[in-house]
From TrEMBL:
Coiled coil: none annotated. The keyword Cell wall biogenesis/degradation does not apply. Keywords: DNA-binding. Pfam families: TetR_C_7, TetR_N. SUPFAM superfamilies: Homeodomain-like. Residues 29-89 form the HTH tetR-type domain. This is AcrR family transcriptional regulator. Residues 52-71 bind DNA. Residues 1-30 are annotated as: Disordered. The lineage of its organism: Bacteria, Pseudomonadati, Pseudomonadota, Alphaproteobacteria, Hyphomicrobiales. InterPro entries: DNA-bd_HTH_TetR-type_CS (IPR023772), Homeodomain-like_sf (IPR009057), HTH-type_TetR-like_transc_reg (IPR050109), HTH_TetR (IPR001647), TetR_C_Proteobacteria (IPR039536).
Length: 223
């Protein structure tokens, strides 16, 4: 299997002789997203094993030549989807974890975002696919873990450490506290979705769980 490399964060442009900006092969972010959107549809419909590059080419509306400029195989496509989601989640988390708002309000906003994400049908389907290929593609499984729960927890850890430095929290282990809070926000919600006991919960149910998580967290760690 081809090793999965990191996606380029910024596409580099080249200039044509006429001085017009021109993107090089494999450097058009809109085309990459078009291919990834097609792959997402195929993976969702057929699962990882049932997906083929031909199906993805058709769903994306591009030629075979174009798709192979961007991705060598469906493993790289799947990894690309995970990486794209990772950046979106990180941007969302970073916009929430700001120091100029009351602590409990920030925890609530984070908990709602995290609860919605982890119980979203697309997230659940992706996780099931990852679990299905974990023995053959452990690096992809690790990437999926780091794109959501783990990376979000590390960003939350930094935020909690900052609030602890201001005297609002008492934390021996900020990372453990961050992981505990994230787990509390999906307690009783995530596993039923994962094992198909129910669909995505209503916002009111997520809110009830998140508010309970905040009470427990502040009881344990408030200064």
């Amino acid at each position: 299997m081809t090793a999965i490399g990191e996606m380029s964060a910024v596409s580099r442009s080249r200039l044509s002789p006429e001085g017009q900006g021109r993107l090089g092969a494999g450097e058009n972010p809109a085309k990459r997203d078009q291919i990834l959107d097609g792959a997402k549809k195929v993976f969702a419909a057929n699962g990882f094993d049932g997906a083929s590059m031909n199906d993805i080419t058709k769903a994306a509306g591009v030629s075979k030549g174009t798709i192979y400029v961007y991705f060598n195989n469906k493993e790289e496509l799947f990894a690309g989807l995970i990486q794209r989601e990772r950046e979106r989640i990180f941007d969302a988390v970073s916009s929430i974890l700001v120091d100029d708002k009351p602590l409990e309000l920030v925890l609530f906003d984070f908990g709602m975002m995290f609860g919605r994400h982890m119980t979203n049908p697309n997230t659940v389907r992706s996780l099931r696919m990852v679990l299905g290929v974990i023995d053959d593609m452990p690096e992809v499984a690790n990437m999926f873990l780091n794109c959501g729960p783990t990376r979000g927890a590390y960003r939350l850890k930094d935020y909690l450490a900052t609030r602890a430095a201001k005297g609002e929290l008492v934390l021996d282990d900020p990372l453990l506290a961050a992981r505990q809070f994230a787990d509390l926000c999906t307690a009783g919600l995530f596993k039923p979705c994962l094992f198909n006991e129910c669909g995505q919960p209503e916002d009111s149910e997520i809110e009830r769980t998140v508010r309970s998580a905040i009470r427990v967290f502040m009881k344990a760690y408030a200064a």
